[in-house]
Amino acid sequence: MRDSHTESDHHPDRDRDRLLVPVVDDDGAPFWEYAAQGELRVQACAATGCGELRFPPRPCCPHCQSFESEWQRMSGKGRIWSYVMPHPPLLPAYAAQAPYNAVVVELADAPHIRLVGNVVAEPGAALDSVDPARLRIGAKVQAAFTKGAGASAGASGVTVPQWLLERS
Ligand SMILES: [Zn+2]
């Protein structure tokens, strides 16, 4: 039997207006916990003589098969490796901000690790806050974090790293 209380608490119309939030699993939970503290950290193998960084987070090192791991703090610096400009049809919350950028950022500290995100004008700004003409593959970016505000956080309060263009 379905719980009628749970059902009445569900507001599909309101959900439609929200940006998607990350699904936090056991392996990835530390990434989001550090992000909430304003730190960009990547999982690294903790086996002696290895230390290979890996992303997405997972239990075993693909390099040496060790299950020992730690979370290394990154500088937050990176470069735009690729980007797209999504246009409707999109989910309503995204259509309202389209066209906006979705970037793949290559980390300066670990060039083989690439994170998907958005370049914004300032922490917490809307997805469409940067003129697409300013985006270039190879452009330097810096990670930024805003808890519980704007485009970087959904109803769940998960802090999602965003990216700011570095002035050059
Ligand atoms: Zn390893």
Describe the structure in your own words:
The structure is a single chain. The protein has 168 residues and is α+β, with helices and mostly antiparallel strands. The chain has one domain. 13% of the residues lie in helices and 26% in strands. The protein contains 4 helices and 8 strands; from the N terminus they run H-H-H-E-E-E-E-H-E-E-E-E. It has helices at residues 4-8, 12-16, 29-36, 92-95; strands spanning 41-45, 53-54, 69-73, 77-84, 102-107, 110-117, 140-144, 162-165. The strands form 2 sheets. It has a 5-stranded antiparallel β-sheet, with no helix packed on it. A 3-stranded antiparallel β-sheet has the order 2-1-3, covered by helices on one side. The termini are far apart. Mean pLDDT is 88; it is low at 1-8 and 149-155. The structure holds zinc ion. The site of zinc ion has 8 residues, from loops.
Helix and strand arrangement:
Layout: H1 4-8, H2 12-16, H3 29-36, E1 41-45, E2 53-54, E3 69-73, E4 77-84, H4 92-95, E5 102-107, E6 110-117, E7 140-144, E8 162-165
Antiparallel strand pairs: 1-2, 1-3, 4-5, 4-7, 5-6, 7-8
Bound molecules: zinc ion.
Zinc ion is lined by residues 45, 47, 50, 52, 61, 63-64, 66.
